[in-house]
Amino acid sequence: MSSMLAQPLKLKRPSVLRVLAYLGLLVLGAVVGVAGALVQPAWFPGGLLLALAAEAGLLLGAARATGGRAGAVASAGGWMITVILLTASRPEGDFVFGTGAASYLFLLGGMAVAVICATLAPVRQPGGDGVRLGK
């Protein structure tokens, strides 16, 4: 009798609709990142909390909508790429993030929220008769 762990992994190709959904979540994560970068310095404690709550809502909603962690990871990837690109200064000297505690709390808090939400996201359960994960 062979173990399920010893069997080769058979992966199906993702459907076009699933790939488009993940790309849409990546773009939505980028939009939330830009909005959070603009809102968080406007009202210091409230704007920061609103930006982080919006990110957490997006990540958990994306994970629930896709039925797995990949939705949260796609949204978090869009958020992180956008926020990191916004931290870079331009040749003219313009930048979005000022120096201060609020900007660092937004960057580090947003990354912590991304890790927490991707960890807490539901995981797909394999189906079939031989699976006993429901115990």
Note the topology.
Elements: H1 16-39, H2 44-66, H3 69-87, H4 101-120
Helix pairs in contact: 1-2, 1-3, 2-3, 2-4, 3-4
Structural features:
mainly alpha
Offer a concise description of the structure.
The chain is mostly helical. It is built from 4 helices and no strands.
What this model shows, in words?
With 135 residues, the chain is mainly α. The chain has one domain (18-120). 64% of the residues lie in helices and 0% in strands. It is built from four helices and no strands. The chain has helices at 16-39, 44-66, 69-87, 101-120. Helix 1 (16-39) packs antiparallel against helix 2 and helix 2 runs parallel beside helix 4. The radius of gyration is 19 Å and the shape is elongated. Keywords: Membrane, Transmembrane, Transmembrane helix. It comes from Streptomyces viridochromogenes. The chain crosses the membrane at residues 20-38, 44-63, 70-89, 101-123. InterPro entries: DUF6113 (IPR046095).
Average pLDDT works out at 84
The outline comes out as elongated
For the largest beta-sheet, the strand count, sense and barrel status come to: none
Number of strand segments: 0
The count of domains is 1
Number of helices: 4
Q: Can you write the helix and strand succession as a string?
A: HHHH
Q: What is the helix content?
A: 55-70%
Radius of gyration: 19 Å
Strand content: under 5%
Secondary-structure class: mainly alpha
Which regions have little confidence, pLDDT < 50, spanning 5+ residues? Answer: none
Protein name: Membrane protein
Transmembrane segments: 20-38, 44-63, 70-89, 101-123
InterPro entries: DUF6113
Pfam families: DUF6113
